[in-house]
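Obj.: predict assembly geometry.
Materials: sequence records (below).
Method: joint structure prediction, all chains together.
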Amino acid sequence: MNKVLSVIRRELMERVRTRAFILSTFLMPIFLIAVLVLPAVMMSGGERSSRIALVDGTGTSLGAAIDDGLRGERLGDGEQRFEVTMVPAGGRVDAVRDSLVALTGFSAKERPDGFEGVLVVTPETYTSGTAHYLGSNAGSPQQMQDLSRTLSRVLMRARLDGAGVDQSVVAQALVPARLDADRVSDGKPTGQSGMASFAIAYAMGFLLYIVILLYGQQTAMSVIEEKTSRIMEVLASSLTPFQMLLGKIVGVGLTGLLQLSIWALCAYLLASQRGTIAGVFGADPDVVNAIAIPPIPADLLVIFLAYFALGFLIYGAMYATIGSLVNSMQDMQQFIWPVMLPIIIGFFGMIRVTNDPNAAMGTVFSFIPFFAPFVAPVKWAMGSMSPVELAISLFGMVVGVVVIAWLAGRIYRTGILMYGKKPTFGEIFRWVKAG
Amino acid sequence: MSAPAVLLDGVTKRFAGHTAVRNLSMTVPAGGIFGLLGPNGAGKSTTIRMIMEIYLADEGRVELFGTTHGARALSDKLGYLPEERGLYKKMKVLDQLVFLGETKGISRGEARKRAGEWLERLGLGEWTQKKVEDLSKGMQQKVQFAGTLLHDPDLVILDEPFSGLDPVNSQVMKDVVIDIAKRGRTVLFSTHIMEQAERMCDRVVIIARGEKVVDGTLAEIKREFGGTHVALTFSREKEKAARVLADRSLVASVDDYGATADVELAPGAEAEALLAALVGEGVGLTRFELVDPSLQAIFIAKVGVEAATAGRREEVAA
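Observations (raw structure tokens):
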């Protein structure tokens, strides 16, 4: 046991000391700050009003109603979203449009009286909803969406009005639905909003995916390094293959967990201090604070760690075994699919569960040891897994770990001392069979 | 009498297509220096790997210290320097040795202390905090040597310990090996350099093509080999010796080194007759000495010139 501990310590210490670890550990929080602050900075600086010429070819009051509707749109800071200049077209819509288009698409400095776009409304706008917009900002989905939304609302109001519906009824009818989704678990409301548990679940699933992929790869690299540096034979004379395998997987896994913990701590600090940090970068603290960051319940944390540990034992063992079969990173490609495939399928299962927590596929996946680490914590976070199901899933994981460890140990003990040519799958099968 | 350190009984190891070691039996008594000799490809490393339980013998029995528990169970009493040297390249020298010590069951503190002493003794005292990859090849080999001996093993197994070392480092290693043996430990080392083995070993086994050809103490082997051997060193007129040395009634075989030669006399021939013949031809000599047969001569005679020189050629090429 002491020997396993010294292998674990070596893996952990040597890894933590590398430049790659230190850089990736501390670049991630900087990336997090950027993710948090940049949208806020963009939101506060990115929104501005645009000058629009409205060519009214309707010949009815619809033009004025659209003009009113556009003028009523406000930006976050209370400014008008659209500065509208209405131009009645009379019967010459095309000519008026073309003369206005000639003033469009210049910078405000070049032509202070120019427009960013020309919106043409005709009688058809009322009947079929079509309107034509020509503008320098026609490529901006956000601005086109704003414009289209406003038009839709004005049209709806105008049509209802035209059908003789009472104005107050119309105002009432246009109030949109606002769904307040609260998560329920074991028959008790948790007080968390559905959005919040989705965010936690998604973040967790994604972290598991990243860490298993990244650190699994490291396990394989570590074995390959021992093979190419030829220290393997010395180790093999002092340690059993099982001691080597266990020490390595746990050591690398702990490194991943350490990095994850540092990131989680940074994320927590950032989240709790997000208003202050945003202020430092000149962003509006209220905008940042408006992003809901849900608390992570203790049970979820424990379950997450359990699945991480068991999942890493399975995938770490698989990666280490692949490392033992080859002599260089390049050679790994041939054997990598038996481990990449379940990881990717598990990840897609996780995405499926975040979309539909009660999907049958998610339930099945949560009992398959290869996929459960990605799917089960997410299902639990979203409140669609019972404690009994959880217990069965975890038991399955333990069985999976034992089976994989047994298989991995058999291949590993032969693989680590094989140099030169890569074994075939048939040969590997014989190693497993050999007593 | 205590149990032998290593006992091989009819050990055979086959790899795909060929037999690396065939029905090999040998006994390494506890204490002293034991040489496992043979040309390259004779099966020395395979034999050692079977002793170390890295390979399992297909047939036969391997005993260590009189038990069949196997090398891994007895790992803490064994020190092993594989033929393929290897260390963690990115690790610091001291950390590396401490780790190797820990895998042999000694505590961290003790490993640190002993590692410091060994590095000092091997002249690497100033390199303890350097990464292994920053060391020269010779230094790396000394670090690995220290790692092999850190836990003061009862049995030290060294596979080609002197290959790739310069004369100075070779001397340092030799002194350490002699010292270990003096303190009652057992050293088993393999080599294909006969001069080295002749000067250091108490007992040797020579194997060729996976089979044992010679086994015993140096004295026994030489006595058994028999014959009268003369060492010659020429000072002048060496070419005139050729006719005498070609005389089959006088000389059985010659190992010609140019300025010197090892001569085995023909059965029944007298050393005095050879000396008289050489002097009669006008050959100048600074040395004419009756000697034991050299291990080199025995090796060549037993293994065959072809195998022995094949080994030598590879050595030169390497």
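Conclusions so far: Residues 324 and 416 of chain A are 5 Å apart (CA to CA).
To do: check interface contacts against the pulldown list.
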